[in-house]
Design a protein that fits this description.
Elements (H helix, E strand, L loop, with lengths): L5 H13 L5 H9 L5 H9 L2 H9 L3 H6 L1 H5 L6 H12 L3 H9 L9 H11 L1 H8 L5 H15 L2 H17 L6 H14 L8 H5 L3 H8 L5 H12 L7 H9 L1
Helix pairs in contact: 1-2, 2-12, 3-9, 7-10, 10-11, 11-12, 11-13, 13-16
């Protein structure tokens, strides 16, 4: 049984703060903050008719998500079109996230639980598209808040709010940082479980239609926070540059 180790999680979070691209630390944090109900949730889903159907049709999501040839053929305005545009712009890939996770050297199990856990990992960037949160510092925390609402994973909760504290502490502006994260959490809890969706069908769906069907709310407080930053001449996607400009 995994051990709950909050101080170890804090140590890995400090490393993540020093280099936000060091995604490996995120997986260490998750490992340090295991959720007791994970196995029960995994078992319930993989034993359901829908779970068995998805295991057969989507055995490994990174192969599906990184095959841009078929996604490129989808119409503009679809989830898939937005996803591929986002991934190319940010220089990301689903395989890259897998590689970061595998740096931990954990044993692999070709079983149903591993398949379920992999879906939680592999849909992270898709969450950005569906929620409307960017890869800016606050956007990442809001996505994690949303994910906590979906899964109840303590690692998501820890990083979302600890990261929110760092944003609030580091950038002085009247922006509703914690309000935006809490709103993301509420939206995640209210929405249908994204990892339980047919991802291939979801990618082909119009983005607005998918958000409405899944019950994903508008990130109003996140947008309000961005307006607050910009009113002070702060670029929410580049806090460091904005702070250097003010200092100069």
């Amino acid at each position: 049984m995994p051990t709950f180790r909050p101080f170890k999680a804090l140590s890995h979070f400090r490393k993540l703060i020093k280099d936000k691209e060091d995604t490996e630390q995120v997986f260490h944090i998750f490992e340090s903050l295991p959720r007791k109900g994970f196995m029960d949730d995994a078992r319930a889903f993989v034993e359901s008719d829908k779970g068995r159907q998805l295991m057969a049709s989507e055995p490994y999501l990174p192969d599906l998500l990184d095959d841009h040839s078929w996604i490129d053929a989808l119409p503009e305005g679809t989830v898939g079109h937005a996803y591929v545009t986002f991934m190319r712009r940010e220089g990301l890939s689903a395989a890259g996230l897998v590689a970061e996770a595998e740096k931990m050297g954990r044993p692999k199990f070709d079983d149903q639980v591993q398949w379920y856990a992999n879906r939680l990992r592999d849909t992270h960037d898709l969450f950005h598209i569906l929620t409307g949160y960017g890869r800016d510092a606050l956007g990442e925390q809001c996505v994690l808040g949303f994910t906590y609402g979906q899964t109840g994973n303590y690692g998501n909760f820890f990083i979302a709010y600890a990261g929110g504290y760092e944003v609030k502490r580091g950038v002085k502006a009247d922006a509703p940082v914690f309000g935006a994260i809490r709103q993301g959490q509420r939206h995640g809890k209210a929405a249908k479980a994204i990892i339980e969706q047919d991802i291939r069908a979801l990618l082909a769906e119009p983005l607005d239609t998918a958000r409405a069907r899944l019950g994903i709310g508008e990130p109003t407080l996140y947008h309000e926070a961005h307006r607050a930053y910009r009113s002070r001449g702060i670029d929410p996607y580049n806090f460091l540059a904005s702070q250097q400009a003010v200092a100069a």
